[in-house]
Amino acid sequence: MEYTHVKHTFLPVYNEESRILILGSFPSVKSRENQFYYGHPQNRFWKVIAGIFKEPLPQTIDEKKDLLLRHRIAVWDVIDSCDIVGSSDSSIRNVVPNDMNLILSNAKIQGIFANGGKAHQLFVKYCHKEGMPPLGKLPSTSPANAAWNLERLTAEWKTAFETYLEITEQEKTFEKRRNDNG
């Protein structure tokens, strides 16, 4: 296989209400073709997110964005450009990282989660700075992570998010009360 220099070509998903930032390493070939995150049909990311919130599996890019934003989740990748062989994270070299300040200065991120070990390793090496929100490493939703079935993945991700989801629910309740009394 041959190395190709590839640039990330689609935007992060976030808004000012985002509380959780999920980071992948770099889009797979399928994701690059689809111009959106976790585009490989065997990747379990969308099943995990839908499962956590007990929602139908989103099909379109708009449905996926809506699912994330309604639950105050931002999604991006650590890498802006790199040399890579196909979709192989282990082949990544000549990394140019994304500037995390784009999201961190425009959203209320309270926790950052790496989707798998490679994303975690790359974030720590290229992006992590003092004063950033806490960083967690989640088991990868990639089909290559066969040791984790969908139920186990969903449970692990939900447990990791619980503190942030509770904060979000408290904020929604407070906001509703304020609007009802306002």
Automatic annotation (TrEMBL):
Pfam family for this entry, one: UDG
Taxonomy, superkingdom: Bacteria
Transmembrane annotation, as ranges: none
All residue ranges annotated as the Uracil-DNA glycosylase-like domain in the record: 11-165
Name by which UniProt lists this protein: Uracil DNA glycosylase superfamily protein
Organism ancestry: Bacteria, Bacillati, Bacillota, Clostridia, Lachnospirales
